[in-house]
Design goal:
Helix content is about 55%, strand content about 10%. The protein is α+β, with helices and mostly antiparallel strands.
């Protein structure tokens, strides 16, 4: 018996089996025992009608039995490999597939209708029989995708309950993406199930559905199993990783797999984690420093601030070298491989003062670093210069060798004298005083123009010759230095007569003190005898005698001039004034009427006077001199009033200092130079009287 299937297969039904033939050759063979009477296809099912080997004896008329014609109808699901239906019928004539059902026609004039159950009912039947594999196959063939995940889950639960954990995990893996992973993970957290858990977590990562907790759990599984090969395969791969890198690094680090952690950190540019592992776990300072040198400027700067102290202590030379580059013109090492890219790059440099603290245990390297900075960047901050100066002075103080101490002090002084150095003078002066750095102290005093401090310093050191030299050098700028030097030597009980004589010579030459103050100062010195000040006193007495003689001469002169003026005034009041001027005082031509005459005996043409004079009531020839005299008188009167006003306010004020400061701010005490006639420099009383008379009598007269 043969039949052509709906899949273009030719089926030959023999007693021992069913043979399938295809267009290109022989197909499979299914061993179904029994004599086949009919074969047909229906909806992918193979329907076979065969004889029943156990035929039922039917009693005949008269009491004898006759065999009954019984057929067995079997419906095979070839794809899923199970029997969908089997049943016995009396004398099957035909099997008809119509209207979505299967009809069996028998010799007894009966028709049996076989209807296919729905998929859900089929699955429930299979579930009851624990035929999950068959249920899965059925669901796939029926494209029953909605319930397929539930079947996998139930199958996995069934296998897990039977103790088949390997089979269960295979089914659970098929639920990834639909079933919550925690449902499966909780079942296999037992240490004895770690292999199954590892397989599930691996599948979870392959599908990219793992979170950080899953990654952590998988790496912990690898580490507990000590399966380095699987760990290498999971981490050290060229393919794109499907897990959280930072979590993987931390887990590997905690488990002691530093090589894997470093690999991940370097590959995915987790700079901070990489450096922590190298420095804290592996103690590979050189490799960490090389790694920093490959980073960008801001990353390198931040990591050197963070790890610089440990790097400088471990590899001081290399760390100092990197810091020099970082603070001048930083270039990542990877740029060196492509020099063409350097042409358009921006220059980055860090602030040197921000790295001073990392050299706390490496003072020599700090000096080297700061010396490099002030050399290549003279405009470095004052903190750099102040720190370098302090290091020089500290080293000089610790040196027991005199030559080494002198060398460090020389460096410190050179730094102070550097015109480009930007150190703070006050801070440098404090450092020099703390370390008793004499040369530095004197230089800073001189730079700050603190000449009196220089003098006091030599006085404290009892350096007489330096006291004199200081006065000679800076006495022009500050004459009070000689006065302080005299007071200093006057208080000394040692023999310093030669110094006192030299100081007195300069005081006398500059007229810096009155003789009385000089004698009062020297009275405190028991060693200063009269012989010391003899020459000074003689010179001062001679000078005073000369001044007295000059004053007496001026007094006589002013008295004579005053008497002469009085006679002139009397003559003007009592007798007529005759004008005898024959020439004009302007053009020097003979006078003619109209003419202008002044009591000062100057005469002018009317035209010349009007063109030359500024005022009709004043002689243009005598006007400048008269105006000068009037200005002098006016200034003296103003000064007198201001002097009285100042003292009046000073007596009434609660805070006298504020009054003095106010007048200084207004410039009241500024020195005013008044140019006067040489003949009017002495005898103030006579001069004021004569000028007053001149001002009253110099009136004009017209003729």
């Amino acid at each position: 018996m043969s039949d052509a299937s709906q899949e273009n297969q030719f089926i030959v039904a023999r007693k021992e089996a069913l043979y399938f033939y295809q267009v290109d050759g022989r197909g499979p063979c299914l061993a179904f025992e029994g004599e086949k009477q009919m074969v047909t296809w229906w909806r992918g099912y193979l329907v076979v009608v065969s004889k029943d080997n156990k035929q039922i004896q039917r009693p005949a008329v008269g009491g004898s039995s006759q065999p009954r014609n019984v057929n067995v109808v079997t419906v095979y699901d070839i794809q899923n490999k199970f029997i969908a239906f089997t049943g016995t019928f009396q004398g099957v004539i035909d099997v008809v597939c119509e209207w979505g059902s299967l009809f069996v026609i028998t010799m007894e004039n009966k028709i049996f209708q076989l209807e296919e159950k729905d998929t859900q009912t089929k699955l429930e039947i299979l579930f009851k029989k624990n035929l999950y594999a068959m249920a899965i196959s059925l669901a796939k063939s029926q494209h029953y995708s909605d319930g397929l995940i539930d079947i996998f889950t139930q199958y996995g639960d069934h296998l897990y309950s039977k103790g088949d954990h390997d089979g269960a995990i295979k089914q659970y893996i098929k639920t990834i993406g639909h079933l919550e992973p925690s449902y499966v993970i909780r079942k296999f957290l037992d240490a004895q199930r770690i292999h199954n858990l590892t397989a599930y977590l691996q599948a979870l990562h392959k599908q990219g559905l793992a979170n950080t907790d899953h990654t952590t759990l998988l790496l912990n599984c690898y580490t507990k199993l000590k399966d380095v090969s699987m760990l290498d395969e999971f981490i050290m791969t060229d393919r794109e990783l499907n897990f959280d890198v930072e979590t993987a690094i931390k887990v590997c680090r905690q488990a002691g797999y530093f090589k894997h952690a470093v690999y991940l950190a370097e590959k995915y540019e987790q700079h901070d984690l990489y450096l922590k592992i190298q420095l804290e776990d592996l103690k590979d300072y050189q490799r960490a420093l090389s790694y920093i040198g490959k980073l960008g400027f801001y990353e390198a700067e931040g990591n050197m601030k963070k790890y610089g102290k440990s790097l400088v202590n471990a590899v001081p030379d290399e760390s100092t070298k990197l810091l020099k580059v970082l603070c001048t013109d930083y270039k990542p090492q990877r740029l060196h491989e492509h020099p063409a890219s350097d042409m358009e790059r921006k220059i980055y440099k860090a602030r040197a003062e921000e790295f001073i603290h990392i050299f706390v245990h490496q003072k020599a390297k700090l000096i080297e670093f700061l010396e490099h900075m002030v050399q290549v960047q003279p405009n470095s901050s004052n903190l750099v210069y102040n720190t370098l100066l302090e290091l020089y002075l500290n080293d000089a103080a610790r040196q027991k060798n005199v030559e080494a101490q002198v060398e460090h002090e020389r460096k410190a002084l050179d730094l102070l004298k550097n015109v480009e150095a930007r150190y703070d003078i006050d801070h440098a002066l404090v450092l020099a005083q703390m370390h008793h750095f004499k040369a530095g102290i004197l230089y800073l005093y001189e730079k700050a123009k603190l000449y009196q401090q220089i003098l006091h310093y030599h006085m404290e050191q009892n350096e007489y010759s330096h006291v004199i030299d200081t006065c000679k050098k800076y006495g022009t700028s500050d004459p009070s230095l000689w006065v302080q030097a005299l007071s200093y030597f006057a208080r000394r009980e040692t023999d310093c007569k030669s110094q006192i004589k030299e100081v007195l010579d300069h005081i006398d030459r500059g007229n810096l003190m009155s003789p009385l103050l000089v004698l009062q100062n020297l009275a405190h010195n028991s060693t200063a005898t009269l012989a010391v000040v003899k020459d000074y006193i003689i010179r001062r007495l001679q000078m005073e005698d000369e001044l007295i003689a000059n004053d007496e001469r001026y007094i006589r002169q002013y008295r004579e001039e005053t008497e002469k003026m009085r006679n002139q005034i009397k003559e003007l009041k009592t007798s007529a004034k005759i004008f005898q001027g024959a020439k004009c005082s302007v053009c020097s031509r003979p006078l003619d009427l109209p003419a202008v005459h002044f009591l000062c005996q100057h005469s002018f043409h009317q035209n010349c006077f009007e063109g030359y004079a500024e005022s009709d009531n004043e002689c243009p020839i005598c006007a400048p001199e008269n105006r000068k005299v009037l200005d002098i008188i006016r200034q003296q009167e103003q000064a007198k009033d201001l002097h009285e006003q100042f003292h009046c306010q000073l007596e009434r004020a609660a805070d006298g200092f504020s009054v003095v400061a106010e007048y200084y701010g207004r410039g009241v005490f500024n020195k005013v130079t008044v140019v006067t006639d040489p003949n009017l420099s002495r005898g103030e009383s006579s001069r004021e009287a004569s000028v007053d008379q001149r001002e009253r009598l110099l009136n004009t007269s017209h003729s």
